[in-house]
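Holo prediction. Input below; ligand is zinc ion.
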Amino acid sequence: MSELFQLRCEQCGRHFGNGPLVLCEDCFAPLEVAFDLPAVRAAVSRDQIERRNPDLWRYAEFLPVAEGFRSDLPVGFTPLLRAPRLGARIGSQDLWLKDDAACFPTLSFKDRVVAVALAQARAFGFEVVGCASTGNLANAVAAQAARLGLEAWVFIPSDLEAAKVLGTAVYGARVIRVDGNYDQVNRLCVEIADLHPWGFVNVNLRPYYAEGSKTVGFEIAEQLGWRLPDNVVVPMAGGAQISKIAKAFSELVATGLVEAKPVRVFGAQALGCSPISSAVSGGKTEIIPQLPDTICRSLAIGNPADGYRAMEVIRSSGGWAESATDPEIVAGIRVLAEEEGIFGETAGGVTVSVAGQLIRDGRIQPGETTVLCITGNGLKTTDALVSELPEIPVVAPRLEAFEEQLSGVGARR
Ligand SMILES: *Cc1c(COP(=O)(O)O)cnc(C)c1O
Ligand SMILES: [Zn+2]
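Structure of the complex:
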């Protein structure tokens, strides 16, 4: 192949070309996609990128898709928003939100990884695709498979939020609810992928899938005016996204698209499932798997596939990782919505809450440019809020009834 990328063993560096492969035959370490960065540098400039459509395919040279690849799915290029009111609440004067709650087509950052994985699934000739999912990935695979005319098999833990199950089944995907947690679902999918000729986006296509997360980093840099932030705060499940955002920043520097600058990378997890954050904040070198118990289902991966990579990226950047309790997650969702008008899912609550802790602890300074990754939409996780918000009164359809209500609560004049 004449492509600018191929699979390479993370440990021994052996190259494997391109295909639905995950582990090195020699040392059993994970494979990742390696790019010929000098060739990428020669192939593309800031000006060219800026003239392209506002979606993640504008970074095609940095993605594992065949030369000349065309997609009509405008995934990604979500807003990067200043967040002055949330900043004032949590103590940052230059706070930004990367708003993947608005990502096309299924309102989470998983649309990015699926877009890239399915491009390769088609290149490899798969007609059936699938995934093991904590919810958002299920939605993204089901929707994008439908648009591409592929058959989808989606495996989820049986206790997922109703909106995430419905938002998968509606696309005609075959949904299998497994009586177990995500880690058990994932192990089952590894066995199924061995038996059936299916492309599982996060199992046998995982190296390609993971590269899709880089687009969050590319967009942040471009939207800041081709400049890197001082800090990013990223929610972690398997740990792929945080690792690949860091990879994106270093590829932008290596290709001369942005000036070199240290970026501290901070990870956020729910306390009820915090294998990566616990290892980082406890100064450990081992990641100890956990049994998840948290309202944040999207991050409930007890045995994170890219946990070591995430830990390495956090530590070497000078960052840190923390976790948030369930009540703190709910408070984070509410403050984000009330101060900035963005309804994030539970993972957003985790990120906002952890960002507040990091600022209070002095790990992030108020004047620094800090970007929080809001990775999914709150309309999918309303279960977390139903018992939290005050009951909404009903009034009679008469002016006096409303005025009486108003005198009780008051209004801004
Ligand atoms: C999957 C997911 C993450 C974490 O992604 P990893 O790459 O597995 O760490 C973060 N936020 C949301 C909303 C997710 O669905
Ligand atoms: Zn190897």
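The domain at 80-106+212-384 is CATH 3.40.50.1100 (Rossmann fold). That is the main takeaway for now.
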